[in-house]
Here is the input.
Amino acid sequence: MVTTEGIKRSFLISLWFMFLTFPIMVIRVNTIENVIEWRWKNMMIVGIGSFFLSFVWRWLIGRKEAGRKKSESGDSIEVPPGQRIMEDRRFYVPGLIMLSIFVAVFPFVFSAYQVNIMTTALIYVMLGLGLNIVVGLAGLLDLGYVAFYAVGAYSYGLLNYHCGLGFWAVLPIGAGLAAIAGILLGFPVLRLRGDYLAIVTLGFGEIIRLILENYNEFSFGPSGIANIPRPGFFGLEMSLSTATVYLYFILIALTLFTVFVVNRLQNSRIGRAWIALREDEIACQAMGIDKTKTKLTAFALGATWAGMGGVLFAAKTTFINPASFTFLESAMILSIVVLGGMGSIMGVIVGALVLILLPEYLRGLGEYRMLMFGITLVLMMVFRPQGLIARVRRTYKFEETVRQDR
Amino acid sequence: MLKLSNIQTFYGNIMALKDVSLEVSEGEIITLIGANGAGKTTTLMSVSGIVPPKTGEIFFMGRPIHSLSPDQIVSLGISQVPEGRRIFPFLTVMENLDMGAFLRKDKDGIRKDLEYIFALFPILAERRNQPGGTLSGGEQQMLAISRAMMARPRLLLLDEPSLGLAPIIVRKIFEIIRQINAEQNTTVFLVEQNANLALKVAHRGYVMENGRITLSDSSANLLSNEAVKKAYLGI
Here is the structure.
């Protein structure tokens, strides 16, 4: 493994890094005393660190290449370990039981802060699963997904402010309004694909945000809507901590519902039509698949979950303003889908939990938090471009027995 | 059964079909032969509504279909095997076949047709759980034809089934086309560059040049026609 060639390359890399980081790591100008500090120690650390890290890096890349060669040569029928565990009854039944116990006792064991961030993460699970329909299954790159999230949140905020409607009444209304917004966006972009679609959806997301920001009479502008009530339980008065736990369980239930629906959709004819449409539009038309209807259902169903997520978000924070619905949010949800594994339900759930919880738990690292977060994202994409848990559609079975699947 | 009268189809400003008229009767195998860019594929695309004609009329079973959407046309009983096969590479063979039956709801009928197809192409039964993209070219062509057959069409539009396949496979596929035509009474509209083979299978043929139909006759006559021989049969 350690060859002269490798040492030479690592040495050059460490030299390069020392040169690159020289201005920020070594020179410090003290503007008060007008002196320049030379921190040569830092340069040593950078040099030695990058020298060793480059070995690790090359080893990992080598391993990845070896893995790819193996899968190209055809003996990749082996199922990835994650999938194997999930398919083995001996593992997944106790696993599921343990998971549900953990989920059930979670709010009573951990602090309110933990419950709160978990609730946020679960909202993102819902958003991720919704966007997964549009991006993962139908293959329509939607960069303005946050617009539907905003529609849901503002439906609750405004309907509650003007008509006094409660959480449970608005939940389906918000979902419906978001679905309508999805169809409205869907119509003009029917003919677009790829980059062009991404740009138009990006613009749509910004339009919604700008309307909310500037149309003061309608949406109260940048000051937003405050005092949105938390979800009620037959008019019961709840303390803040009970309400937090209650919301947590609402989200658990809704997440399960989402997983159930998305799973059914994925294995239904319409789900396969989405995948088919992503792969070949002309062939789809030749099969009699209505392109317009199929694309619009994908947009509408994707937006529905965003609308529900928005209502939940408004109920959780009790305050909404347009600053919560920036492009960054869309990018975050898209990252959840891509990092988790496009088209894979488990992947999206894990992706959402990792992407939302990681920055929270990295708070211990203080100012390096976002740096570590960024590094994690880059490493994940380099080493697992198919996502954390890739969708496994391969079911190679060469037996003669007629297996009636689906 | 199918009647095209004075069809003109455009790609943007470019006129691909110039006053095309032709007729297909029930139970026939009709072939449309011609060189690259003659407008053969466009003719099929116009019939299936994917590239609708700008002027002219298309009738299917006496019904005008030139202004219907592709899915409505499929539901009337016209199914297309697109050029270059265009199967769904990431869907399994079974799922590909199921997409062919997208508009159908009769589960028993679908199962029966599936059995028929698996009897026709046993290799597809063997590979039913494999993604379409892992099949060989010939198997993909079989899958494309089967997928179109799953819609139980009255008229099957076949676009260059011989494209990029070994001669032995091509002959086998043409054999199957004839079998489908005979057994299922499916009318076949075959577009081909391999004029020799196509004319041997078909009952009648049309010759297309630069977006116009230049000749139409029975296959036997076309095979012995001096001009066709020279231009398309390489004799």
